[in-house]
Each structure stands twice: as C-alpha cells, then as structure tokens.
Amino acid sequence: MNNTVAQPLLITGANxxxxxxxxxxxxxxxIAYRLLSRAEMDIASEENVASALTKFEPWAVINAAGxxxxxxxxxxxxxxxxxxxxxxxxxxxHCAARDVKLLTFSSDLVFDGSQKHPYLESSxxxxxxxxxxxxxxxxxxxxxxxxxxxxxxxxxxFSPWDDYxxxxxxxxxxxxxxxxxxxxDSIVSPTYVPDLVNASLDLLIDNERGIxxxxxxxxxxxxxxxxxxxxxxxxxxxxxxPRTTAELGLAAARPAYSVLGSERSAGLLPTLEDALERYFVxxxxxxxxxxEHAPAATxxxxxxxxx
Length: 307
Description:
Layout: E1 9-12, H1 17-29, E2 33-36, H2 46-56, E3 60-63, H3 77-97, E4 101-107, H4 130-145, E5 150-154, E6 157-158, H5 166-175, E7 180-183, E8 187-188, E9 191-192, H6 193-205, E10 210-213, E11 220-221, H7 222-232, E12 240-243, H8 245-248, H9 272-284, H10 293-306
Parallel strand pairs: 1-2, 1-3, 3-4, 4-5, 5-10, 6-9, 7-12
Antiparallel strand pairs: 8-11
Helix pairs in contact: 1-6, 2-3, 3-4, 5-7, 6-10
C-alpha cells in the first residue's frame, strides 16, 4: 500500500470569493489543497507564514487573501498596504527561500485609464487610488523577492458562488422591483471566476511566471453589464439607471477605462457573452457543477497557449 500523502496546494483567503472558488475547483480537479483563513496563516506575519509553510509543506501557494474594499482603503491605507503589499512580499520571500511556487493576484486598478485601448502586461502602472497603489507596489516587491512568482492581473469578478458580486447584486435588486444605479462611463473587462480559477491553476501547474492578464474577452461599461444581466434574467432593464462615475460620489478615484488585453494570454478565457450564459445557467438552476467545465477549460487553455 502506498501511504504517501501528496503535497498540498496552500490557498489563502478562506473567507473570500477567490479562495473558496479555488478550493471548489481543486476538489473537482482532484488537486490536494489546504484552504487557510487569516487565523490559520496571517500572510503579513513573517512568523505565521514561516510556520504554515513548515507545517503543510506545500508545493505551491495561491494568495487569494487581501484587502478588497477599494473605497474604504482611502481612509484605511495602513490596513490595505499591510494585507495587499506587505503580505504578498512576505509570502514571496518565504516561498522563494523554500523553492515553493507562488501565485498572487493583482488588479486592473494599477492603471490610470488614460488610454483607450486594452492595457497589456507591459503597460506602465499609474494607479489612481490607495488600493491600486497597494497592488502596484505588491507586484514590484513580489518580483524582487522571487523571479519565479506568477502574478495575475484581473478585474470585475462575477461568480455563481458569491452573493455580493456586481452581477448578482444587480439581479437581486432588480428582481424585487428596485432600481439599480451603475456607472455608464467606466469601461471594464469582466471576469467569470470559474474561468479565471481554471486558467490560473493551469498556468501555475505549467510553471509559468511573471505578470499575466486574465479576463474574459469583452469590453463593456458597468451600466451595460447590468442591463445585459437584467435582459438575460427576464427583468426590466429600464430599471438600470446610468450615472457618471463622478455622480456616484465614490471615495476612491477609478480609471475611466481599465480593459485588460494581453501579450501572453490572448484567447485563454472565453468571451464575456459565453461566460454570462454559463453564469445564468448555473445560478438559475440553483446549483453549479463545473466538473464538465474544468477539463474543457483546461483543454481550451492548452490549445490557446499552444497556438
């Protein structure tokens, strides 16, 4: 009998959308993992990180933890930089020392939105807000600590497993007869979480490194995204109310255009239209089974990268 226990994939962010999604799809793909909360490993603590890596002996770490409240970060910069910047740097340092792979996430908010064509991996970072600066600094520090680290920039999550993403909230508000206000002058490239996670796992397993952009192929305003969500749900799209970003009175400045293109990963993720269709199939049936999608997504990634 073989009693060898596979080295796990260590996933931070047990209470977040991304961490839970990685755990779900690792289950479906048969990847051994450990999903850790902040109480189990505080990534901004040198001692905690060293202890967890010694205890679990992972082959790789996925950093899905961090500070995500973009507007609150303007009044809580210390907390934001502790979680997003210092935590990522500490993980990179300790993973590099142990020859453990690291995947961590960045954001479209590292860009200022001044250009009107998709941002590439090599585009200069010019963040407009505290959150964006925390992610831009994290990228630099992580690559300084580990040339083998994999950094994925992504944007505008939506997921069938999260009650608080933009698409789900829009549908919930509209379904009870309320209006839903959305920015009409902010252009993004939304990302379907199951697609993001499957592609990220493939890149990690294939020993990719450096900065990659992953988002579903599509360019859309938050307002039009909410209208599409309403139409696909049979709801009244007229209840989606357009506002300029300035009229929303947000604490943190946002880029007017933060669409992610790629020099490395073009075609890795399906179109936004395809992703929205699968999102609605999943949510309307009140269950999600990505078992059939994981191999398909993996095959798509392999084929796109081979081409």
